[in-house]
Specification:
alpha/beta, Rossmann fold, 5-stranded parallel sheet, 5 strands, globular, phosphoprotein, Bact_response_regulator, Alkaline phosphatase synthesis transcriptional regulatory protein PhoP
Length: 141
């Protein structure tokens, strides 16, 4: 049984890989996207227990993407991550529907603590051997 599925949306592939490693070591399955189109494909295909979103990704309208996600799903937590340290970004993210905000760089233990705040242990679904993430275009995962 998976600890839960998490969607990670960020244009920095190195950061995504580092996050995937940290989360996989804790039993989480991760679907990832590096642009808005891929992000929408993930959210149309799978139901993650958490979305980790950098608001500055190619093809996205910045903070408005949070509102778009909220229009699709009002319950899945959205954890915004950004290297932008302006309080305006944090405040806008929260007012647009983000559940939390972390400023990059994020130590692994801080990230895990935040993830556990939103994803309860054992909340992942047991199913067939082919994960929902692997059903997507392999370049998205």
């Amino acid at each position: 049984m998976s600890a839960g599925m998490i969607a990670v949306i960020d244009d920095n592939e190195s950061w995504i890989e580092a996050v995937k490693d940290v989360l996989a070591n804790e039993g989480f399955e991760v679907c990832s996207a590096t642009n808005e189109d891929q992000a929408i494909e993930i959210l149309d295909t799978v139901r993650p227990q958490l979305i980790i979103l950098d608001v500055h990704i190619p093809g996205a309208r910045g903070l408005r993407l949070i509102s778009d996600f909220r229009g699709r799903d009002r319950t899945t937590p959205i954890l915004v991550v950004s290297s932008d340290d302006r309080s305006l970004v944090r405040n806008q993210a929260m007012s647009n529907g983000a559940s939390g905000f972390l400023q990059k760089p994020i130590p692994s233990q801080i990230l895990l603590r935040a993830v556990r705040r939103y994803v309860q242990p054992g909340s992942g679904e047991q199913g067939d051997s082919l994960s929902p993430c692997s059903r997507l275009n392999p370049s998205v995962n």
